[in-house]
């Protein structure tokens, strides 16, 4: 059985198909003219015909809207749910869908009290001491009406109406559900996952369907259901220009990659998590999002930078946070048609650079391994060559182990011995310490001492790491791990979005070839 060795192996050899699609999208539905106090004053004076601007007359509209919602639920026999604190609304939707038999309609109406932005009237006084009303924007805990619906084209979605003026709405849809229904209508065979596709008869056709989902389709969904559900604004209001518009509040984009066997996906994803625990650091986030981050100065980059590994529900899940964006990647085993199925890997992200970063990291590991496998010259422990003897120069892996050891032994106040160095460097090189002789370590100690990286404690066989040794070891190990490996991997790895180094190398080769052709 062939097992994937790296991320690159999985992406090139074990991915059966991949589909990229809009996943969950949360949208603002609002009347633009009523999002500020002056617009509300204009509505009260021009549309309601009242000379004094106050929110008091709006209470009648609020009561009428609330009554219309209850009447709609009663006439259409729609179940009514008052959400309890901490209750998951999606769980209620799944329970209600089990008893819903229509192809589309309102599954249930939920009510919850939530904090939201709204307008209130304050009493203020002029220079003469007389009071007058003044409209201010504030927040308050008010009722929200959730209309959980089933649409023939979009599947399950919900509209959340605020019961207070200006009656802002939130629309939540799922692009994968839309793609499934469009594929079924087109006669394309597939096996569905909870949030994606397990098998697809025509991957290119389904991907084309996913690419079609855009503002027109979402706006048509909104207009369709605004005409069905109770509307807080009258036809005269809408004719006067007080119409709902859409804007994106939160968007998730998914890349689903179906693997050929569970073992490949599991080993691959564990490797991804192990190698990307630091990806939430600012220096790593800047690589993924291609942004210059400032942690100090008068205008530091806001937001939190962290990496989380979550094993609840799906196992496992990798989360990376940057400002208001979260990249979520998870892996679980698909079970289509009641049988054990292939592995399913899913990204929720806004930047394909995250996928390239993972591939580059794994290629960097492979490039580093190739670098370490350079042949090492035969050891001659019985001789005492000069420290710079070329026939005894160790391989890069050996040198890297020595430098890494210096970083550790710098923290030893009493220094370290030949045996300490032999044990630690052998472990770093994956060797049994018994296979490394004391003579070989003596040679390494002479090299380090000649270059002033260590100094011997007078009258003992113990050594201390010098300041120069600490600085040199830190710099060279960072170059080895963060620059050399990544640079070699970037030059050798073909990604959809090449990095600057490979782009520069390609441009240089092209310039030389053009010059040669012209000559």
Any chance you could write out the topology, listing elements then pairs?
Blueprint: H1 7-14, E1 15-30, H2 37-47, H3 58-75, E2 80-82, H4 89-97, E3 105-125, E4 131-151, E5 155-162, E6 169-174, H5 175-185, E7 190-193, E8 196-200, H6 203-212, H7 215-226, H8 235-239, E9 245-259, H9 262-275, H10 282-289, E10 305-310, E11 317-322, E12 325-333, E13 343-349, H11 353-372, H12 396-409, H13 418-428, H14 438-450, E14 454-456, E15 463-465, H15 467-492, H16 500-518
Helix pairs in contact: 5-6, 11-15, 12-13, 12-15, 13-14
What key attributes describe this structure?
single chain; 519 residues; alpha+beta; Arc Repressor Mutant, subunit A; eleven-stranded mixed β-sheet; two-stranded antiparallel ribbon; 16 helices; 15 strands; 40% helix
Structure in words:
The chain is of the alpha+beta class. It has a domain at 390-491: Winged helix-like DNA-binding domain superfamily/Winged helix DNA-binding domain (Arc Repressor Mutant, subunit A, Orthogonal Bundle), CATH 1.10.10.10. It has 16 helices and 15 strands. The protein has helices spanning 7-14, 37-47, 58-75, 89-97, 175-185, 203-212, 215-226, 235-239, 262-275, 282-289, 353-372, 396-409, 418-428, 438-450, 467-492, 500-518, and strands at residues 15-30, 80-82, 105-125, 131-151, 155-162, 169-174, 190-193, 196-200, 245-259, 305-310, 317-322, 325-333, 343-349, 454-456, 463-465. The strands form 3 sheets. It has an 11-stranded mixed β-sheet, with helices on both faces. The protein has a two-stranded antiparallel sheet with strand order 7-8. Helix 11 (353-372) packs across helix 15 (467-492) and helix 12 (396-409) crosses helix 15 (467-492). The longest helix has 26 residues, at 467-492. The two termini are 53 Å apart. The relative contact order is 0.09. Residues 334-345, 347-351 and 361-394 have low confidence and may be disordered.
